[in-house]
Design brief:
The structure is a homodimer. Chain A is of the alpha+beta class. Chain A has four helices and five strands; from the N terminus they run H-H-H-E-E-H-E-E-E. Chain A has helices at about 5-20, 25-30, 40-50, 70-75, and strands spanning about 55-60, 65-70, 80-85, 90, 110-120. The interface between A and B is large, with 39 and 40 residues. Chain B binds a DNA duplex through helix 1 and helix 3.
DNA sequence: TGGATAATGCGAATGCGTTATCACTGCTCT
DNA sequence: AGAGCAGTGATAACGCATTCGCATTATCCA
């Protein structure tokens, strides 16, 4: 059965505190503040497990390794903002209308993805 | 100096004929109809060269290796449609209004990307 | 036409993100 | 407290896309 370990607790806490999608290395850095011995392999194992349990959901951006966000965040339809200064990704609220008019005739759209790029609040001088 | 080879001619022709973004393997398959001996390494070398010459431009979709499209296509602002049946990517015309209202206050948007998913005309039964 | 050399084909090698192996650690339950 | 075993850390190995090395081929220009 599943055990409660300091490593897993730390990793879960990191997602709760971040409130935005995180990559494996970001998780490692943040969780090491609580568990300094934490190893990247453990992060990957835990991410995989949490995914199987549907506790987290992958977030893929063009040309980048997957990040992960909590299921709670993933349940509401939303998109992402990627800061080109600090490479962080943020959740956005809402969506846009009018995507259907981009679809050529004879094509059927079942899903869509929107990514905004720019500078986040932290990096705006 | 640069030389005119059957391989390079074939690869350029493939992009002209396709009218949509192509990945290295798609290029290889198509160009082998003209030059059966064509090697994947040569495709990569040629794509790299064409990129340096700005003849083609990379197209990155979430979780996938880059495809490439002709500069002519890349010059007009546009987005892409990815067919989940055949994995082909198509160019779309136009864009949507209202992206700005997704940007949180304090953030500055400089660019954006939109990807539609679904079934293309060829795969619609 | 022939020589210099850019380009090719082939296979090995790289880089990066991710996963497997395995001895050891430390939860959990009795 | 102690046994049993899930979880961990460290490191090797993997898969994949891409690039390199090098002998061979083929283009271009005199």
């Amino acid at each position: 059965m599943q055990r409660q370990t300091a490593q897993r607790v730390a990793i879960e806490a990191v997602f709760g505190a971040a409130g935005r999608p995180l990559g494996p290395l970001e998780v490692l850095d943040a969780a090491r503040e609580r568990v300094p011995s934490l190893n990247l392999a453990t992060v990957y194992r835990t991410l995989k497990r949490m995914q199987e349990e549907h506790a987290i959901h992958p977030v893929e951006l063009p040309g980048e390794a997957p990040r992960y966000e909590l299921r709670a965040a993933a349940e509401r339809h939303h998109h992402h903002f990627r800061c080109c200064e600090c490479d962080s990704v943020y959740d956005l609220k809402g969506c846009v209308a009018g995507l259907k008019k981009l679809v050529p005739s004879g094509f059927r759209m079942t899903d869509h993805e929107i990514v905004l790029y720019g500078t986040c609040r932290c990096c705006t001088s």
